[in-house]
């Protein structure tokens, strides 16, 4: 099989159900999900197999799910068979809760940074937010799997949390935004 087909030379690409311009919102959405996936791979190769075995396992699963999400978003035909489900969102929430227990209480906004791995995971977070914005537009303009939108929303929270975990495990503090006061408070304050 040749890697090049020449079928896209005129500025169109194939989706499940037909051909669309390469700058169609559907293509923008699944293309950005693909960018997220590539950066997740970049984050994984920065990880120590012993220290981050749990993260490598979870992020590898997320890579497969991002591929599924891209496939769901590429479906423009009438007989859609979606793979991203609400149970995947619920599982991400459980992972966030588990990883969050490793982190110190959050009191201020934090800036992307700290350790190189944390920075890479913050890139994953912001790209996921961009993908989510594109999926919001896609869902408003065309039919698409809305579970992908919810999944991406939760996934960005996951990346935020594991970016903090990466700093904790590296022994590096989060970089706090210093131009503001404390914005997050514990439930027990003032009692």
From TrEMBL:
Segments forming domain Cobalamin adenosyltransferase-like: 3-166
Pathway(s) the chain acts in: Cofactor biosynthesis; adenosylcobalamin biosynthesis; adenosylcobalamin from cob(II)yrinate a,c-diamide: step 2/7
Catalytic activity entry: 2 cob(II)alamin + reduced [electron-transfer flavoprotein] + 2 ATP = 2 adenosylcob(III)alamin + 2 triphosphate + oxidized [electron-transfer flavoprotein] + 3 H(+); 2 cob(II)yrinate a,c diamide + reduced [electron-transfer flavoprotein] + 2 ATP = 2 adenosylcob(III)yrinate a,c-diamide + 2 triphosphate + oxidized [electron-transfer flavoprotein] + 3 H(+)
InterPro entries xrefs: CblAdoTrfase-like, CblAdoTrfase-like_sf, PduO-typ
Record's protein name: Corrinoid adenosyltransferase
GO molecular function: corrinoid adenosyltransferase activity
EC number of the protein: 2.5.1.17
Keyword terms, alphabetized: ATP-binding, Cobalamin biosynthesis, Nucleotide-binding, Transferase
Organism: Laceyella putida
Domain of life: Bacteria
Similarity comment: Belongs to the Cob(I)alamin adenosyltransferase family.
Lineage: Bacteria, Bacillati, Bacillota, Bacilli, Bacillales
